[in-house]
């Protein structure tokens, strides 16, 4: 094999990720040329509506997967949080890179921290997960939808459209954008539980090529793979989509996994929450086990009702 083609989205962060993987492959396999196939996903085209209203996270991956199935690319590099738990026939998610800081971060040009926000302050996020957790802690805040790429969101903040916004720390750090924000506060995992797969890259390949599989698996971090599998098990079993406020995060430390999950209404009410600590060796089915426990406690009915009220102003037909 002399050449590998990586499918990637064209956002600044996606390109950073793709070039990062390109460099890693070229370092380990100097005899192989690595090229990028840049694709504009549907999720990148529609920037004026919440993600849940345009079909969910699959809109960031479908075009890349279609290109691989057509034989136009060998590998796709995804932000793992954007990868649905269903993988199309003919493709396989074989590796997850080492996860870095998974935290969300508070950003503001006016206020030093989340606690310092005055009553009625406007906070920008379109994530139902963030909305739920913000309003659980601060029901006095006004949460306003925020769409667009990272630079667009930061511009809207600087223009004063929001008193603060919440974004993933890792993307801002990779693009060196934190230095331009006067006030930042990294939120702890107990304060703001991340989504499935945050801060990890998923490497998806076309099935049947053992050399491609070998190369992709060389990028794999075992601990991160184990943790993200737990998260993906949970989301798959509980059937949570973008219209459901769900937080889900597993962290491994000294051979033990801490698994946090939360779900509820987007207004911060009707919360179900669990935190489990177990040895990594006993966590093969932890995601499914915890999902079943929450389903038995009424999670599916709760999520069904949550979906009915999510974005109700934009979706009156769903009430």
Description:
The structure is a single chain. The chain has ten helices and 13 strands. It has 319 residues and is of the alpha/beta class. It has three domains: 3-99 and 197-220, Periplasmic binding protein-like II (D-Maltodextrin-Binding Protein, domain 2); 104-186, D-Maltodextrin-Binding Protein, domain 2, CATH 3.40.190.10; 237-309, Double Stranded RNA Binding Domain, CATH 3.30.160. It has a five-stranded mixed β-sheet with strand order 2-1-3-10-4, with helices on both faces. Helix 8 (222-238) runs parallel beside helix 9 (286-296). The termini are far apart.
Brief overview:
The protein has 319 residues and is of the alpha/beta class. The protein has ten helices and 13 strands.
Kindly list the characteristics that best describe this protein:
D-Maltodextrin-Binding Protein, domain 2; disordered C terminus; 5-stranded mixed β-sheet; single chain; alpha/beta; 10 helices; 3 domains; Double Stranded RNA Binding Domain; 319 residues
